[in-house]
Design a protein that fits this description.
five-stranded parallel sheet, 7 strands
């Protein structure tokens, strides 16, 4: 796509990442936007099916990568088993997940920017949904790591979804 910027959006198929993807896609016709779907053995694997469907229905190109060719287990003492314990009792908090995803995005797509759909509410539980983390990743990977929704709360993102005419029922958020 011409001389446009290459943007990779980490895309789960959830509401936040869908709004983030549409924001990147509709921000300028000069950008080359790719959705990166990451299979990390997530509890809600249906997210990936939603993500593929959204991309296919809108014509947004996507690629999928496997992040974890391992199995999560409490002990982590077998080959390809990694120790798994929920952070502070929350099974959804996976330390370092977004850092790994940014590394995968850089390796898979060689982007100018990597966008994540982190919202303001995520910042309390997830260190890797905060601006200082994005700044560190920008330095480490020499690619702009962008959190366009980090100042918005979920209710505001729902309003954005309506503005983009996103069918919220097509998304799947944990």
């Amino acid at each position: 796509m011409g001389d446009g910027m290459k943007i990779t959006v980490l895309f789960s198929g959830g509401l936040d990442s869908t709004v983030c993807l549409f924001q990147a896609f509709w921000s300028s016709c000069e950008h080359d936007v790719t959705a990166l779907l990451v299979d990390y053995n997530q509890p809600h694997v249906r997210e990936l099916e939603c993500a593929k469907s959204i991309c296919n229905n809108t014509g947004i190109k996507w690629i999928a990568v496997n992040a974890y060719p391992w199995f999560r287990s409490p002990a982590g003492n077998k080959p390809n088993h990694v120790p798994w314990s929920a952070a502070e009792g929350d099974p959804m908090v996976i330390r370092g997940r977004n850092s790994l995803f940014v590394a995968l995005a850089c390796a898979a797509t060689d982007p100018d920017q990597v966008w994540l759909g982190c919202n303001h509410n995520d910042q309390a539980d997830y260190e890797d949904c905060r601006t200082p983390w994005a700044e560190r990743m920008t330095q480490a990977f020499r690619v702009d790591v962008v959190l366009p929704l980090c100042l918005y709360e979920k209710w505001q993102i729902v309003k954005m979804a309506r503005w983009y005419d996103i069918n919220i029922g097509d998304t799947l958020s944990c």
